[in-house]
Amino acid sequence: MVAAVGGGFVAGSLAGSFLNVVAHRVPRRETVVFGRSRCPACGATIRSVDNVPVLGWMVLGGRCRDCRSPISSRYPVVEAGCGALVAMVAAAEAAAGQRPAFAVVAGLGHAVVALTLVAWALLADRGHTVSRVTVGTATLLALLAATVVPALAPLSVGCADGACTRGWQTCVVAALVGLGTGWLCGAAAGGQAQAACGLVGAALGWQAALLAAVAAGVARTLGRRNSGAATAAAVLAVVCWHPVAWAWAGVCRAAGAG
Predict the structure, then answer these.
(1) Cα dihedral 66→69→75→77 (10° resolution)
(2) Which of 120, 129, 82 is nearest to 200 (CA)?
(3) What does the pLDDT look like over 109-130, one tens digit per residue?
């Protein structure tokens, strides 16, 4: 458990560092694949030792090593937040009592879904609308993964510990129902929440889509009407849904045995 959580935090913080690059460059139509990170103020290349997630910012005191211009605290916050997010997903999978290989595959898949939603939220916060092609591609990949990989099938299918006997057709239907539920319920929250809830539904099932839509609706009710806040609420649903579902499955098994 400790190793899974620690490894999840490290992997998540590295992913958060990349998402910071995505959020900075994509609205400027710059490549996210090539080119070293640079200081926005003086253009100096950021050294590798200074680019370590969270720690690099802390060592520099939140300022560029070359020009001493302040570096926004949002960078380490995103890195630490993504680290905590992936660590929580890893903890949920490890605590579910699944086969190790099954838990690793499920954890990776659900972490990717959560980090995709974080990327959409960061871009929305920068005023950038995620394209329909991007949303469609992410949703299609989630549908395919939920169909062909038992560990990533929607939880409503009941593929516990990798022993899925329902068939790929059942997985397809469950994923499509989840997608439709997410799109219909997410529409009430408006903006990017519809796409986010649809992705959650395709990956985790219709129950998770409902939870994501409720979270997005609460965010809107509290005054967070931007798409980024609604998408971030869907991220919370991804993290919370899996442990809740496995706990409920455990209760049902115990009741059946009794």
Answers:
(1) 120
(2) 120
(3) 888 988 998 898 888 888 888 8
